[in-house]
Amino acid sequence: MSLSILNNISSLEAQDSLTTTKSSLDKTLQALSTGQRINSGADDAAGLAIANGLEANITALSQSVMNATDGVGMLQVADGALSQVTSMLNRAITLATEAASGTVSTSQDAALDAEYQSILTEIGNIGTATTYNGQQILTGGSLTVYMSDSSTNGNASVVVNMQTLTTAALTLSGTDLTSAATAATALGDLNAAIAAVADWRGKLGASSNQLSDASNVMNAQITNLTGAESGIMDADIGKETADLSKYSILQQTGIAALQQSNSMQQNVLKLLQ
User: Which CATH class name applies to 51-233?
Assistant: First the structure.
């Protein structure tokens, strides 16, 4: 075996191996500390691109679920207001039925009509005062709930036409219970108004169900996409733990080998003694 003091090849080889081991050990420690297999584009460029795309889908769908939930909330507020209107109309039916009887006196008709007119006024107040997030929701217009998974073709909107709640819209404006005849006329209009409100509530309920169904579908998509992203990004903890043990041992043996290769140079001094 030749001895050389200019180049210690075994030491250089040990240093190279130790550098490689340290790099692998650092990568393993990073994976264990973050829980992710991919921590930079260098780890898996294609996998990172796919995972980032899935994350964008998940983010958009999560917000879309919130949009749908807000839409359902708004429709429920509207339905609750209309439920009160239905109760008030039923009370008006009672008043009109009583006023239509010939046994009611003129003063009693006036009292019945006073309560009836207050009901009509309150129905109008409900139409203007019912709000959601600061917006009037029973004064016409439409509600558009936008949903998307952030992709070009993954967009959808649910449009709900919001009717106007006024006594005129319910054909009750100008009706009164001041006589048996006008009370009988009001009864017909009240029945039509109740039917109209019921139809409106039915449409709101159908739209609410549509939004709830869409929300359920999107939640299922979020679960599946999260699973797919996890499969790409998450570290295999069992494997990384085994690698940690392996690279820790290799680092220790590498350091020992480097020390041994460096000590071999000291043998040259023995020849000079």
Answer: mainly alpha
